[in-house]
Amino acid sequence: MNEIKNVAVIGLGYIGLPTAAVLAANGLNVIGVDVKQANVEAINRGEVPFVEPDLGVQVAGAVSQGALTATMETPSADAYIVAVPTPFNADRTADLSYIEAAARGIAPQLTGGELVILESTSPPGATRHLGDYLVQLRPDLSLDADSGLPVIHMAHCPERVLPGRVMIELVTNDRIVGGLTREAAERARDLYSVFCKGNIHITDAATAEMAKLVENAYRDVNIAFANELSVISDKLGIDVWELIELANHHPRVNILQPGPGVGGHCIAVDPWFIVSSAPDEAKLIRQARETNDAKPEWVLDRVEQLAAGKPIPKIAALGLAFKANIDDLRESPAVTIVSDLSSRLPAAVIAVAEPHVTALPSALAHLGNVELTSTEAALEDADIVVLLVDHDMFRTIDRSLLEGKGLIDTRGIWR
Ligand code: SAJ
Fold first, then answer.
1. pTM for this structure?
2. Banded model confidence at residue 147, pLDDT cuts 50, 70, 90
């Protein structure tokens, strides 16, 4: 039974804002905290600063009822949910500086007995680190239940929602809740049960941290297998898409799809947290990352081969998003490929079609031989077409528009 009434959600991004909205819609008093003033102001007007289906209605409703407000200062609360980014450093260890900044906001507000939940995807040990850091900032508080001093209850509750389906999956997905103590895990479970209709599984904090990383590493390893098959098949003159389709008829085989590489802010990042925690042991997981990260280079080589001998190669690059039917360009292999093509083939003219964006991202905007255009315009002049994202609108392209052109279909949609 949840006894928490006031929740502060630190970080109002892709995960924090939906979580804040859904808690507010379920009767809690929620204060969201963010460092971006424009976002705080937008949320207080009931607006959402990014695209996520159904989130706008929930935020507008919660704000108009006074259940959700946003601020730049961390308030006092019964529970704190930290949902800030955890990027990686140049050496691929996790950068915990945003978590530590959140802790510096929370620490002065603590009186003892609060629940602090880390939601950000984190390396094993990060929840313990956050707890230790809070105690370091507030030595008058203790994590030790036996000491007689006030306790902060520390838990990790990783999110596992799929962008584009966040408002559904937040409610329906099962959740893993790991506590530094059993009591912390139970308190966190009770809080999440306010809105979560899936099963909530209790464990310790490090196992919960690792579970999230393992889910994404599992997918990364399986995509690496598909990507390696595509390179092998190309060498052997085999159609990899047909090969996978046929192999998948086996009742215990389910090979994923090859592509131009793995993008997004989760699968391309999280496995490195496992590798940096156990560098000598995580051999397969590291190799999968390297295999997937090498795929853009392989695509570039193919384009270069088709462009050989053409004084001014005209290249149409279709898609920039990290996967189909979204506008998210983070860690997208398509962006890397276009950027590297521009420098490898300085004489080329590269027309990029990405119907989900209105301007080129900063990584491409300054490149003199790259322009954003419509799909039709990109195809019209091109002598090489490289398909990078399997957006639905590219599947239905009139095939006569592709005739006579050099084609590289990295997603197998035009077979
Ligand atoms: N991809 C392939 N071939 C495939 C499947 C995916 O090349 O067969 C590529 C995509 O094109 C994309 C990348 O992998 O570039 C990642 O896409 P995705 O759809 O596999 O995953 P994300 O990053 O959108 O979301 C993942 C999900 N994790 C799992 O499915 C295990 C999601 O449930 C997590 O919540 C999310 O990461 C996260 O936040 O960690």
1. 0.91
2. low
